[in-house]
Each structure stands twice: as C-alpha cells, then as structure tokens.
Design a protein that fits this description.
Layout (H helix, E strand, L loop, with lengths): L1 E2 L2 E2 L6 H19 L6 E7 L4 E6 L4 H14 L3 E15 L2 E12 L4 E9 L8 E2 L3 E6 L5
Antiparallel strand pairs: 1-2, 3-4, 3-5, 5-6, 6-7, 7-8, 7-9
C-alpha cells in the first residue's frame, strides 16, 4: 500500500514516524525546561510543507478538541501528530505524569503512545521512559 510515494510498514510510514518522533522529542525538551505544552500539533501537507501549532490558554479538553478539529478541517493534510501532558494509570489505581502522543495518516488507522516522565523543569535531571503504545484512536483523516 502506498500514498504520496510513501512505503508503509504496518500502518506507520517513515514520514509519520519521523514527524511524530520529532514532535515527541521537542515536547520532552520543553518539559525538561519547565514549559507548559498545551497541545502541540504538526501537520504534513500534501504539497510537502509542515504546519506547526501550539494551542494554549484554555482548558485541556478544549485544547485537545480544537487540535483534533483543526486536523479534520485542514484540506491537504496527509499526516499529523499531536502531543499533550496527561496522566497514565501505572498500577493499582495510581497515576503518573505522562506525555501523550496521537498520530495518524490519511487512509490508515490512528494510534496513540505515551511516555512517563518526572522532574519537569529540572533540566538535566528530567527523566522519561521510552514511548509505549496506548492503543488505536479515532482516525482524523479520511
């Protein structure tokens, strides 16, 4: 299966892997410096350009909904990744801070992943885990 001359492995193309990995790295760097993320969104357009947005100054649910609506409503978007701070249940009802990544591509399932972190704003003392799969998400692109 191919789309825009991309070779897929599974449901994640090399281009989507790069887009989402870069966004996750940028978000982790921001957290290490103590910055508030809001919702970070990147969209790769059919013509090749990448659009980046940082949504903030509202509640987390509204920001996430606005980011997803932006992806759905942007003509020519072929792949996207968005990231935000959240929490993940780790054991016996306890939760840990996490950065959550959602990503998808036109015509394919969308997925999410998370990375636990600690030490926000502590620079070199900031720690995070390798990303772990969090499941399939509602596809935002046709």
């Amino acid at each position: 299966m191919s789309y825009d001359d991309n070779t897929y492995y599974g449901h994640v193309s090399p281009q989507l892997d790069e887009l989402s990995s870069t966004l996750m790295g940028d978000a982790l760097d921001m957290l290490a410096e103590g910055e508030e993320l809001g919702v970070l969104l990147v969209m790769h357009m059919r013509a090749g350009e990448v659009e980046s947005l940082r949504l903030s100054d509202d509640g987390a649910d509204k920001l996430l909904r606005a980011a997803r609506d932006k992806v759905r409503g942007t003509k020519g978007c072929v792949r996207y990744a968005l990231v935000y701070e959240g929490a993940v249940e780790v054991e016996d009802g306890a939760f840990a801070d996490a950065i959550i990544l959602e990503f998808g591509e036109h015509g394919c399932p969308s997925f999410s992943a998370y990375s636990l972190f600690e030490g926000k704003g502590q620079g070199d003392e900031f720690r995070w885990t390798d990303p772990a799969p969090a499941g399939e998400e509602e596809p935002l692109l046709g």
